[in-house]
Structures are given as C-alpha cells and as structure tokens.
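Aim 2 progress update. The chain analyzed this quarter is reproduced below.
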Amino acid sequence: TGSSFGKNNNIVLMLEKRFGAGETVTVITSTEVMVEVEDDGMEDEEIDDEGRVVFDDFEQKTGVQSLLLVAIKKDSQPEPLYVECVFDRYGVDVSRAHVGLGCTGFMMDQGASAATLYHAYMERAGEDVKGEDEEPLEEVAPASSPPFDELDDEMQSHFKGLLSERGVDTQLADYIMDVLNHMEQCQYVDFLTKLEDWVAH
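Predicted structure tokens:
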C-alpha cells in the first residue's frame, strides 16, 4: 500500500507491504530531504596517434539524491529494525542500521536529518514521538549503532541482501523518484491554478 501527504509544502511518501508471514516493511522519504548533487564523473582514457595516453574532458552531471528510511516491523519483536539510506535513480546506499528509535542524521550530509522521516513513520503509525514539552524528534537520543561502512564486510552484505529480498533496490529507488517528481509537478500545477483563479476573480 502507499500513501502521501503534504506538510509545510513538502511531500511525504510512504510505501508499505507485508513480507512473509510476520513482517511489515515500510519505506519513507520526503521532498524535504531531497538534494541536488553534482557528479564530476570519470575522465575517459584514450590513446592518441603517437601512443600517448590522453584524457577526454569529463562532463559535470547534476542529479538528485534523497534520504530513505526503511522500517522493518516483526510481529514477534517490540521494536522495528530501522535502516537509514541515501538513494538516487541508480540505487540505494545504506548509512546506518539499528533496532529501535534513533535520530542520527545521515553521514553524507550533516545538514540533513533523518528526524523528518522518523517522525512521519511514527506519526502515521499512531505513536507519540514527542516529549512532555512537545519538542520535535530531534530531541530523541542518538542511536548507538556505528556507521554502516564501519561494519565488517559480511555484516554489510547481510543487510544489503535483507533489503534486496524485501524489494528495497534500484527498481524501487527509480520508482520513488518518478513518483516524487510527478507529485511535485502536480503540486506546482495546483499552485498555478489557484493563483490564476485568485487573480481572475
């Protein structure tokens, strides 16, 4: 199943499915945590007529990356497994994985925070994520898990396989990007329509 909702002009996209007999897999992202990135690419090697190695000028490419929170809830476990990821059209990279609620931010962009996605997940699940003073989720204590790239190769491979088995892969990443782009376009068209109607009347 899928759902989307707006919050402060940002779109939150949440997809959920049952996996096996006792798991619910939920993926959450938002336009609020999308960023444009520049990829300098690679220089292509060529051999000129005199046998010398030369490099073609590379083209700077601009793309979009976003943050993705995967929550895997087992009926037999009190807390979900959370996997924090960065994704674009070409795949999903894991940043951190831990059991239970955490708020660590993403490794590649210290200015972005996973808090938005945790809050969206917990809010839609009907759970209270705010403290007594109603502070946002940034006040939650950080997870104690290490960054994903500090885990041994076998453990990293296990987590990647776990996500792939549950459909969190390149195909899903490409689909989510298409959906977010479409929803942003619809939001923009709706804005123009309302503005035109206001001016006309």
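The first strand starts at residue 2 and ends at 7. The beta strands are 2-7, 10-19, 23-30, 34-39, 45-47, 53-55, 61-74, 81-88, 91-99. These observations will guide the mutagenesis experiments scheduled for the next reporting period.
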